[in-house]
Design a protein that fits this description.
This protein has 409 residues and is α/β, with parallel strands linked by helices. The chain has 3 domains: 30 residues; 202 residues, Rossmann fold, CATH 3.40.50; 147 residues, Response regulator (Rossmann fold, 3-Layer(aba) Sandwich). The protein has 14 helices and 14 strands. The protein has a 7-stranded mixed beta sheet, with helices on both faces. The longest helix has 26 residues. The protein is globular and about 65 Å long.
Length: 409
């Protein structure tokens, strides 16, 4: 064999090896190598089928409206006006399916992920996104473990469970004291996943020190189709307060069943109540009347918040906290990409960590992340008054005073 032919073969072998390595690199980094000048892909991951699909669909609607709004305003200006493109994923109300969707989104080359509503799903999807260095902005999931595992890619825009419970219990004491302390006994009803079980555990630990006796704690599955037995247990115990911790369908069914069975506590006082939506109020105004809930809500004085409500209703939907939070999380991601001037995942994570975004319409201070948790976030107390939600606490954003105890009609 001549030296020349040997050299040719060696060169070809090296060329084939080199191109194979390049192909692997392209597959491994699709966002950078396959979509430099095209739209910026954002993963919108929510449970749009399964037992918590109502909330997932609401989140998706809010997130898609935000994508439209960012694009209509000129896209990401620091990147020449590149537009956002939603990559939709359905977690099917299951953590393992959520993880599979993260893997698909990674292959699709998403720059960041917003979602996935439920805490149990978020615990899984944030971990999966961390393997690929994808910024994962949690829109609703409140379990504090989500941001307590040291995952540098994970950011929660809204308040966490401890913060919400602290606010809710502080406000409950103020409302009860202001009415002459009519409420002394409590029953807890909770769904049995990470959200409800964690809430029930915390309330059992905290309520006695505040002067409330917990008579009974009743767990239930999601979905639950019949709350008759639970309502009859509540009626027999006759607590002053019922505190439910469950998702939309179960929350509404419990409230309806309580009224049907003649259960009349001094108040239904929920914390992150799943029925905190205007659809429930419109369809069942008597069942919803006077319910108090400590939850996520917008600053009703803000013009952008009012505009989002109009856009949501124009699509035949109801404005809910899921719509609001998912919408603002997409805008938060867009702000981070704008400041990063890059779709590089590490750059986006860094920009989120350094965020001071104050352009939101929530009743928050400026965004400041400490270990992934937004320190500027806070919940508010809502009450169903005049067939609508009114903010009744804190005083600086309140639209009305709380009615407590509720009238026994």
């Amino acid at each position: 064999m001549s030296a020349r032919s040997s050299t040719r073969r060696l060169t070809r072998r090296r060329f084939v090896a080199g191109t194979s390595a390049a192909a692997v690199a392209v597959a491994g980094f699709p966002a950078i190598l396959r979509a430099q000048g095209g739209p910026i892909k954002i993963g919108l991951l929510h449970p749009v089928t399964g037992p918590i699909s109502f909330s997932g669909l609401q989140c998706r609607a809010g997130a898609e409206l935000a994508v439209e709004a960012v694009n209509a305003a000129g896209g990401i200006k620091s990147l020449g006006g590149r537009k956002l493109e939603a990559v939709l994923g359905d977690a099917e109300s299951k953590p393992d399916v959520g993880v599979a969707q993260v893997e698909k989104m990674n292959e699709a080359g998403v720059a960041a992920i917003v979602g996935p509503f439920a805490s149990g799903i978020a615990l899984a999807t944030t971990q999966a996104a961390a393997k690929h260095g994808i910024a994962h902005v949690v829109d609703v999931g409140v379990v504090d473990q989500i941001v307590e595992r040291g995952l540098a890619n994970t950011f929660r825009f809204g308040p966490g469970l401890k913060s919400i419970v602290d606010t809710a219990l502080s406000n409950l004491v103020k409302i009860n004291d202001g009415a002459g302390k009519p409420a002394k006994t409590v029953m807890l009803v909770h769904e049995d996943s990470a959200f409800g079980s964690g809430m029930a555990k915390t309330l059992n630990e905290r309520l006695p020190a505040l002067g409330f006796q917990v008579l009974e704690t009743i767990p239930h599955a999601t979905p639950t189709r019949d709350f008759t037995n639970i309502a009859l247990k509540i009626k027999a115990a006759n607590p002053d307060l019922v505190i439910p911790s469950n998702y939309n369908n179960e929350y509404i069914l419990l409230a309806r069943t309580m009224r049907q069975q003649g259960v009349r506590p001094k108040a239904i006082y929920s914390i992150l109540g799943g029925g905190a939506n205007l659809k429930f109020i419109k369809e069942s105004p008597d069942d919803a009347a006077y319910i108090i809930d400590c939850n996520h809500w917008f600053d009703n004085r803000n013009a952008e918040a009012k505009a989002l409500r109009q856009k949501t209703e124009a699509k035949g939907l109801f404005i809910t906290y899921e719509v609001m939070l998912a919408h603002e999380c997409v805008r938060l991601v867009a702000d981070a990409i704008e400041r990063a001037k890059s779709t590089d995942r590490a750059a986006i994570v860094k920009a989120l960590a350094e965020s001071t975004w104050a352009g939101h319409f929530m009743p928050y201070g400026p965004t400041k992340f400490v270990n992934g948790q937004n320190q500027g976030a806070r919940p508010v107390n809502l009450q169903v008054l005049d067939k609508d939600f009114k903010v009744v606490f804190p005083p600086d954003v309140a639209e009305a005073k709380p009615v407590f105890p509720m009238p026994r009609t």
